[in-house]
Amino acid sequence: MNGGMQNKNPQAAAITSALGYRFTIPNARILIYQVFAYSIIFLNMLGQLIMDFRRNSSNFTVSVSICALLLLLLVSWDRYLLRKKNRLQSLGIILLILGFRWYQYAMGWGFVVNVLLWFLYLVSRRQLTIFITADVISYPSFPVKKIPWDQVSNLILKDGILTIDLKNNKIYQHLVKEEDQDVSETEFNEFCRKQLKRSQSIVNGQ
């Protein structure tokens, strides 16, 4: 996941307590991952239909009809969810079911590949959350990146934009403001300032 600014408003949340702060940011690439999943589903169906055709399956016509109908229903339901509820359904179970079907053709490697793709798909759809505590900053890369305060040059929330500026010149920026965002930018920035000052004092004292 790169550090470029994302352009969509997130469902952000913050916990202003001794535990620190939590910001949920949007997964800007989730639509791309969904299209990728549909491509995998289509290739699975196509491959399995070709196997049926080569075996002169008596249910070939039925299989084609079922696959076409299933794909149409999945896409139609996703279009509805995206327009009405601004979200997408999970296709993970479909990937697993199609993976199991490869055993029907004595091709276990097809199942293994689908399980791997299923895992990557779930990882890509996970909720992206930044945790900021007095001890460490958890950034939602994969695996989660733990950033100690002594590696941070500056961390600030201004006009709804969270900026994490690292000493290695990497910058992570995310738009986190929405109408029901109740975190105080002043309090949060003061919290970050104290952690930066404390980490600098520890470094200088070594």
3D structure, described in words:
This protein is an alpha+beta fold and 206 residues long. Helix content is 49%, strand content 17%. The chain is built from 5 helices and 7 strands, in the order E-H-H-H-H-E-E-E-E-E-E-H. It has helices spanning 30-54, 60-85, 92-101, 108-125, 185-205, and strands spanning 21-25, 128-132, 136-139, 145-148, 152-158, 161-166, 171-175. Mean pLDDT is 84; it is low at 1-17.
Keywords:
206 residues, alpha+beta, PH-domain like, four-stranded antiparallel β-sheet, 49% helix, elongated
Q: Radius of gyration, Cα only, in angstroms?
A: 23 Å
Distance between the termini: 34 Å
The proportion of residues in beta strands is 15-25%
What is the share of helical residues?
Answer: 40-55%
Domain count, please report it: 2
Contiguous runs where pLDDT drops below 50 for at least 5 residues = 1-17
Task: Trace the largest sheet across and list its strands.
Answer: 1-2-3-4
> How many strands appear in the DSSP assignment?
7
Q: Write the H/E string, N to C.
A: EHHHHEEEEEEH
Number of helices: 5
Strand count, sense and barrel status of the largest sheet are:
4 strands, antiparallel
Structural class: alpha+beta
State mean pLDDT (0 to 100 scale).
84
Gross geometry: elongated
Summarize the structure.
With 206 residues, the protein is α+β, with helices and mostly antiparallel strands.
What is the secondary structure topology, with strand pairs?
Elements: E1 21-25, H1 30-54, H2 60-85, H3 92-101, H4 108-125, E2 128-132, E3 136-139, E4 145-148, E5 152-158, E6 161-166, E7 171-175, H5 185-205
Antiparallel strand pairs: 1-2, 2-3, 3-4, 5-6, 6-7
